[in-house]
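User: Structure tokens for this complex, please. No commentary.
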Amino acid sequence: MINKDLVIIGGGPAGMSAAIAAYESGISDILIIERDSHLGGILQQCIHNGFGLHKFKEELTGPEYAYKLECKVNELNIPHILDTMVLEVSPEKVVTATNEKDGIFKIQAKAVILAMGCRERSKGALNIAGERPAGIYSAGTAQKFVNMKGYLPGKKVVILGSGDIGLIMARRMTLEGAKVEAVCELMPYSGGLARNIEQCLNDFNIPLKLSHTVVEIEGKERVTGVKIAKVDENRCPIPETIEYIPCDTLLLSVGLIPENELSKDAGVALSRITSGAVVDQNRQTSVEGIFACGNVLHVHDLADFVSDEAEIAGIAAAEYIRGNISNETEINLKTDGKVRYTVPQKITAYTDTTVYFRVSDVFRNVKVVVKNGDKVLFEKKKQKVAPGEMETVKITKDMLENVNELKIGLEVL
Amino acid sequence: MIRNMTCIVCPMGCTLEVTLDENGKFVSVAGNTCKRGEVYANNECTNPVRTLTSSVRCDNGEMLSVKTSEAVPKEKLFECMEEINKIIAKTPVTAGDCILKNICNTNVDVIATRSI
Ligand SMILES: Cc1cc2nc3c(=O)[nH]c(=O)nc-3n(C[C@H](O)[C@H](O)[C@H](O)COP(=O)(O)OP(=O)(O)OC[C@H]3O[C@@H](n4cnc5c(N)ncnc54)[C@H](O)[C@@H]3O)c2cc1C
Ligand code: SF4
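Assistant:
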């Protein structure tokens, strides 16, 4: 068996950023394992700009963001193997992987960082009536076709779901000559960033139909059209509002889900809400020495935040390997439902911690409140919060004295 | 006259309320969090521009992602796409290489965003 200090699974922005941070904190016996034939992860197909404003202070496209990290990985000579799939991670941190050249092999690691990213949900398509003709794609698959293979999957398109990938693809297919008839969103608000609604839909007069869904897909061999309808407050379609839109393609952009099959094998406890691991401020999971970061931990909207989180995990893994991490306390972070989840979910050391969180609905004029029982420790006003945008709140060291639980919630003013 | 818009310069996506005079000329803006929002609002009311990203075929069959080196006038986006779709890029390419000079007389180049 091969021995390594640190094995990182996944060579996307999370894996690369974690590797760079661990290296810079003094650990050089690292191996990044990536199943694809190049580093960069999902960013290679995200050819649009909007990346890197926080991290590199310039506006980059996905491939450029990935390239910057890749150059750094190469400059530091951080070992990585491509075309290699990790099959299993054990609680003892034995990583089993396979590739064509070496067959199946095992590595004993002192610490492991999970950075496998996420995949697209396909659920949205299941409960729509009608046949399953050709012409139904997830937005990310369509993105791969258009950007990586140079092939336009359809000419007349309806998009279900207004997440960022769906919005980006509405613009992309329009520019390539397709007509996007409508973007339907089940919720009364969009899950995508406001700037993407402006530059991807409004720029091209593509209608965004909020509180709408696809109720039927028509066509035998190929999609010939879809029926859409408005939904009531309980998200049930209203029959009188059904309208028919002829089209040859239906794109589904109904969300992403962390890819955690490996984490389950390793015995890592997962959160029902994020579908990712439960972690502390170091991004350490319930299994000592196994860390998680990026989209495998919770779905991010910005690659920049992925890198920030990965650096925390990278530095912590290096400290762990040196034996410098111990649990001084265990303070659970609870939420009130309006705040849907936090990452981290617990704090195990008396240190300042930035807590990332998402809300469950659109709220205006609210206060973010951190409480210990009934005692308010911190509050800040926000004009607007929405499920599509990740928020942060800083928990300082002095808030942690003599508490075993903190509650993070919203109060509508 | 008042025009509402969303600033697209950064992911904050501030809602802007732009005041225009009777000739449609920019007077002032409210709702922006930073100075870049004001510059954006002014441009948007005089000469709206967008960075264009796309991908082009290479001589080895692979697809290469590209972008305009600066933003181009919004009304020229489709014209630029026609030019971009005619390109066959010569490999090897390094990220940052110029693939097409002065696209559609905009004084803006098309550059590679990855290496092949
Ligand atoms: C379609 C799309 C559009 C986006 N648009 C934007 C945007 O406009 N701006 C922005 O800032 N962010 C955007 N994002 C978000 C950003 O790209 C992601 O948050 C970021 O790429 C996540 O990084 P990651 O490293 O966690 O995951 P990924 O980039 O998905 O990387 C995970 C890597 O792990 C590898 N892997 C998985 N399982 C295994 C295994 N078992 N063995 C070996 N390797 C494995 C995968 O091959 C992959 O390379 C977008 C995301 C998507 C999906
Ligand atoms: S005004 Fe400033 S902060 Fe607001 S979206 Fe524009 S650039 Fe971002």
